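Support request from a user on the community tier.

User writes: "When I paste my structure tokens into the form, the page sometimes reloads and wipes my input. The last time it worked, I copied everything first. Here is what I submitted, just in case something in the input itself triggers the reload:"
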């Protein structure tokens, strides 16, 4: 048995207050790269975040996680048991099908919404659409983004010399479609 720096990674996901499910990576998961094109790729993430990203993508069936090179995460639409699947021997990669990982108590983890955002409560989830906030039309204000969806944060600065910011410099678009503050420059 070859030992790795990630020797038998144990991911404990707490369900409720006292129960935990465990999943351990073994030698069969190490140094395998799926010979297919990925559907998404993420950098600088943990293996747990990689699993969460896969669960949030309705097409994702498996992951490769590169623990040596910037903690890369590759999502695939194929499982190891699909016909015609082959692997390359690639040092530092971990491959797993997504269905071997325990599902945590957050019911939105493996749900996607066609519109809106997933909200979970206990063992259920619901997709909810939120209002959008109005775009800033004040020419004396600069924002770091043009997004207006609920949950968006904007950083605000004044665009004209000699003006001062009145209100918070960071505001959020609330679920009701209104910005968290009426920030302006004068």
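"...and here is what came back when it finally went through:"
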């Amino acid at each position: 048995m070859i030992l790795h720096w990630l020797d038998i990674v144990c991911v404990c996901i707490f369900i409720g207050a006292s129960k935990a499910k465990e999943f351990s990576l073994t030698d069969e998961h190490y140094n395998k790269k799926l010979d297919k094109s990925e559907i998404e790729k993420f950098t600088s993430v943990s293996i747990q975040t990689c699993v969460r990203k896969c669960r949030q993508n309705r097409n994702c069936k498996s992951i490769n996680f590169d623990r040596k090179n910037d903690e890369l995460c590759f999502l695939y639409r194929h499982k190891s048991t699909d016909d015609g699947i082959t692997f390359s021997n690639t040092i530092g990669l971990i491959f797993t099908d997504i269905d071997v990982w325990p599902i945590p108590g957050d019911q939105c983890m493996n749900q996607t919404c066609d519109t809106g955002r997933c909200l979970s409560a206990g063992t259920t989830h619901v997709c909810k659409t939120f209002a959008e906030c109005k775009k800033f039309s004040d020419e004396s204000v600069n924002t770091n983004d043009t997004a207006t969806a609920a949950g968006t944060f904007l950083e605000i600065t004044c665009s004209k010399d000699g003006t001062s910011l009145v209100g918070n410099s960071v505001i959020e678009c609330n679920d009701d479609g209104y910005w968290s503050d009426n920030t302006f420059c004068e």
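Agent notes: The reload is a front-end session timeout and is unrelated to the input. The chain has a mean pLDDT of 76. The first strand starts at residue 10 and ends at 15. Escalated to web team.
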